[in-house]
Amino acid sequence: MPQPTAANRVAYWTAVGLIWSLAVWHAWEARALFGDGANFFIHAVQLDRFVHFYPARDYAMLASQVPLLAALKLGVDDLAWLARIFGIGVFGLPTAFYHLALARARRDSVLLAIVIAAIALVFMPTSFCAVGEYNAAFALALASAAWLATTDRARLLDGFIIVAMAAFALRVYEAFVYLGPPLAAMALNMARSPAPRQRTSVLPFVAAAAAVIVALVGRYAMVVGLVPLLAGLAVVAWQRPQTRQAIAAALHLIAAALFVAGAAAALWSLVDFVSPDRLDVAPLEIFDVWTNPPFVLGLGAAATVAVWALLRPADLAAGRPYRWAGVWLVLLALFPSLALAVSDTEIRPLAFGQCSSRVAGGPLALVFVVLIWLCRPSSRGPAWLVPIQAALRAPGAAKRLVIFACLTLLATLPTDAFLTRAWSDYLFALRTDVRTHAGIFTTDRAAAAAWPHVLMIEPAMLTCQGLIVRSRPGDGLIVPIHSDADWMACSPGDAAAFGRFFWHEN
Predict the structure, then answer these.
(1) C-alpha to C-alpha distance for 45 and 469, rounded to whole angstroms
(2) Of 88, 86, 113, whose CA–CA distance to 5 is shortest?
(3) Among 194, 226, 371, 492, which has the minimal tally of Cβ within 10 Å of its Cβ?
(4) Hey, is 478 helix, strand or coil?
(5) Which pLDDT tens digit goes with each residue over 370-428?
(6) What is the rounded CA–CA span in Å between residue 417 and residue 270?
(7) SS3 344
(8) pLDDT per position as a tens digit, 203-212
(9) End-to-end Cα distance, the chain
(10) Does 273 have pLDDT greater than 80?
């Protein structure tokens, strides 16, 4: 493959540096405790084991909790540090997948621009509820698409890696009901890619069918069955080099089967969802996207360039489409300043607005997956796409597209910084409340429930967060006013189960 251009190297390292710096900062500020994260964290600490509630999301939940469980086994009892370590897993998992996508696409300007834009438009404006498994699901889908789109034929090492990603996709998030099929089609296309002629064998098809059946048997049966299969194929490929191309094709076929199985597992989860009432409401949250203006503004910038590419693709080599799109980016970058101008209203970045936008983020991730495939170097798309592909491959146009994607990512940073700072202020106010009160007290007596900290409160999780930030047994126990919460994830009585665990940082 060609070496990345200087512009690509700058864009790649800029994006990688930003997403990992943000992951570390978010983990340090204990942002993983927002929303459901406090519930997962408190139960993992109390039970000293992995916590997982949704079968279709098992792998993402378990993987994100590995650092926390490792710290618990090593005897760490400072909840401040445990919360940060929990954040390493929660933020590190999607960041690692996005890093993988960037690394795979860095030699192709168009694909690199698409991946950076996906991070800016899908991840940045929807990920404040970091514990949400959708963050890992969207990142995994984009990493898988980038992996499949950046090679001209099935290769052995690529095959092992895409099988590993497809196996992880089996139980990540229900969005794979629509993300899985296109990824399966991509993997199947690679399995059929031109290669030296090999004798046709029924074994790959049997292995793929067996993978689907085993995957649907239980939560962990696939892992048990897949490891020996991959080990056996690796041994055969090592001892018989002439079989490597056939094994590479078989691996991509198995990956396609696993992506289909992941979609089937997601569909079954939706049919038999653990919380039917929640399932009835969740799709309607797509209409709440207006509560997350940064998502809309970023999408407006991307849509401007996309429509321009459809109507006048030759203009992509000039600056005109990007100047118009830049208006959206300026508004996006300046949006947090509205909170300073009108501080007593909700015209500001909202954490819960990002949570609602996940419903729109999934279809947008699907759009980027399809774009990655259509814009790959070896793509032979429909006739209407040919002039756009040719225009994008022009050196000037490709470079402008990469710069625009980087500017889009940079424009999301003020909103992220604003919300992270707001979370830190809320957590400090909550710590102050529990340390200056004794016994049980309600939110009407809490500074953490005053404006604007109240915008960070989810009543059902408030008591969990209050328990986590207690520094000694005599600290207060905060509860929401009864009318604010029909259900609470934790109760004041759970304080006794914490034992030696306290938040030791001032």
Answers:
(1) 13
(2) 113
(3) 194
(4) strand
(5) 999 998 887 777 777 888 888 888 878 999 999 999 999 999 999 999 999 999 999 99
(6) 35
(7) coil
(8) 555 666 666 6
(9) 52
(10) no
